[in-house]
Amino acid sequence: MEEMTLVRATIKGDQQAFQRLVELYQGPIYNMAYRMLHNAHDAEDAAQEIFLRMYTKIETYDQSRKFSTWIFSVASNYCIDRIRRRRPLVPLDDMAFALPSNEDGPERLALRGELRDTVQRALATLPDHYRLIAVLRYWHDFSYQEIEEITKLSESAVKTRLHRARKMIAQALDKQGGSE
């Protein structure tokens, strides 16, 4: 079933359509929440709350826009609110993100895991508003325009924050490389 058909059916109260939307977005929403909140348990809780909000507020969705932009806007707002409520940040846990392919040996998997952890630590050093932009762009492949819609920022603000986020990540990676 097409995404917009599922959305329209969910608006009409179709539970199966809602369940299908959850199935379509549970991975991307969980990953975004994890990258923003840095904790698997918090990310699971956030994903559940985000889908609950999706269900209760889906009638506010503007069907002339992409649904993915709307749900990621709901998710980013929820994660930012949660971060503000819980300061200071909790430490990262050791959850693995990459699914190993059959071709990767133990050494390659270990290197990939180290790289993932290093990048995740660098990402954790970013202020929330820079981290959000980086996660949306590089982990979820949103366009500048989609990020504008999600964050309610201008294109120039999105580009500026993304540029600053890249610089901060590079600096954090340099520091990590120098301290290890």
Short description:
The chain is mainly alpha-helical. 74% of the residues lie in helices and 0% in strands. It has 2 domains: 1-95, RNA polymerase sigma factor, region 2, helix turn helix motif (Rna Polymerase Sigma Factor, Chain: A, Orthogonal Bundle); 103-180, Arc Repressor Mutant, subunit A, CATH 1.10.10.
Question: Could you characterize what this model shows?
Answer:
- With 180 residues, this protein is an all-alpha fold.
- It has two domains: 1-95, RNA polymerase sigma factor, region 2, helix turn helix motif (Rna Polymerase Sigma Factor, Chain: A), CATH 1.10.1740; 103-180, Winged helix-like DNA-binding domain superfamily/Winged helix DNA-binding domain (Arc Repressor Mutant, subunit A, Orthogonal Bundle), CATH 1.10.10.
- It has eight helices and no strands.
- The radius of gyration is 17 Å and the shape is globular.
Which key features would you list for this structure?
globular; 2 domains; 74% helix; 8 helices; 180 residues; single chain; Arc Repressor Mutant, subunit A; mainly alpha
